Amino acid sequence: MTTPVAPRADVELDDDDVHELSAEATRDPSAPGLWIYLLAGTVFGIVLTKGEAISWFRIQEMFRFQGFHMFGIFATALPTAIVGVQLLKRRWRRTLGGQAIAIPPKHLGSGVRYAVGGTIFGLGWALTGACPGPLFALLGSGATTMAVAIASAMLGTWTYGRLRHRLPH
Amino acid sequence: MPDILLRPWPWYVAGPLIGLFAPLLLWLGNRLFGVSSNLRHLCSAIAPRGIPYLTYDWRREGGWNLAFVAGIVVGGLLAGLVFANPEPVAVAASTRASLASLGIHELTGLVPRELFAWSSLTTVRGWIVIVGGGFLVGFGTAYAGGCTSGHGISGVANLETPSFIALGGFFAGGLLGTFVLLPLVLGLR
């Protein structure tokens, strides 16, 4: 076990910070190298793109309840993820490298950050037709103005970091 | 080019495959599947500026995830450019009609050219959609602590209450964006 992430100055939110990142603190020295994540990301990008989950039009179809495609994706992705993660947690319990499976719990707090932050993100999702994964897949597919959207998203994240101590969580 | 490589995949193929990434990354090395953290890692790498939220060892915390997101770009290039679907996306006729009434007629490719061409950045509506929309995505996911993958898939797979709340927020915002904000913005030049 390596040392945990460096302590932060904002004590009140420090706990949350560490929790969001603490899976990384339990790094396994025998874990596979970065190339495996590059490969996994490539497959994920192909699935997102060929599944049209990065299509601005499909996102509009979903929010307008005019087609089943995106709902079908969520309705099959979620049970797959739930069964996989729960099996891994309860039955298999080990990573490829033999480490114990550890998922840091998310802190509910007042819940405001999830409701408000989620709604703000949803607004952006409807406009750009893309959540963060698709932003990057779209960039690769040749929608080059997504580089501007990504830069702006980074500025959004930076602004949140800057205002964080003043926002309700 | 063989047609099978170009054709889009049905939801029942793409959905389960997407769902597999949460357990897969957990199994590979206790990694939590979630793309929006990369926006934070990139900010931390470029301009932490003494902000506590952005001051951490981004290489160690996010190296794997940045590699994953680089892969997403490559995957998008392969599936969306090299093996791009030449047909317009097969959305419902009602969606085509709704979009036409908003002035969006070209349904080829993955995004409407009318909105996402570089020339669109010289228009108010293009600016709001690309720059404004991107900002809301980055701010909102950071505030909510995750996006469609981190909350919608990972968090829900771990049966976390915050992620169910976030998912409700995503959809509420999406509806507001689709039925209120987008028609207003698309009316601008």
Describe the 3D structure.
Chain A has 169 residues and is an all-alpha fold. In chain A, 64% of the residues lie in helices and 0% in strands. Chain A has seven helices and no strands. Mean pLDDT of chain A is 87; it is low at 1-16. Chain B has 189 residues and is an all-alpha fold. In chain B, α7 (124-144) packs antiparallel against α9 and α8 runs antiparallel to α9 (161-186). At the A-B interface, α1, α2, α3, α4 and α5 of A face α2, α3, α4, α5 and α7 of B.
Keywords, please?
heterodimer; A: 169 residues; mainly alpha; 7 helices; globular; disordered N terminus; B: 189 residues; 68% helix
The Cα radius of gyration of chain B reads 19 Å
Q: Low-confidence spans of chain B: pLDDT under 50, at least 5 residues?
A: none
SS element count, helices of chain A: 7
Q: Globular, elongated, flat, extended or rod-shaped: what is the shape of chain B?
A: globular
**Any low-confidence stretches of chain A, pLDDT <50, length ≥5?**
1-16
What shape does the CA trace of chain A take?
globular
Largest interface: A-B, 135 and 134 residues
- Proportion of beta-strand residues of chain A: under 5%
Fraction in helix of chain A: 55-70%
The largest sheet of chain B is: none
Strand/helix succession of chain A: HHHHHHH
Largest sheet of chain A: none
Mean pLDDT of chain B: 95
Helical content of chain B (DSSP H or I, runs of 4+): 55-70%
Q: Please give the alpha-carbon distance between the first and last residues of chain A.
A: 30 Å
- The termini of chain B sit apart by 40 Å
Class per helix and strand makeup of chain B:
mainly alpha
Q: How many β-strand stretches of chain A?
A: 0
Mean pLDDT of chain A: 87
Strand content of chain B: under 5%
- By DSSP (H or I, 4+ residues per run), the number of helices of chain B equals 9
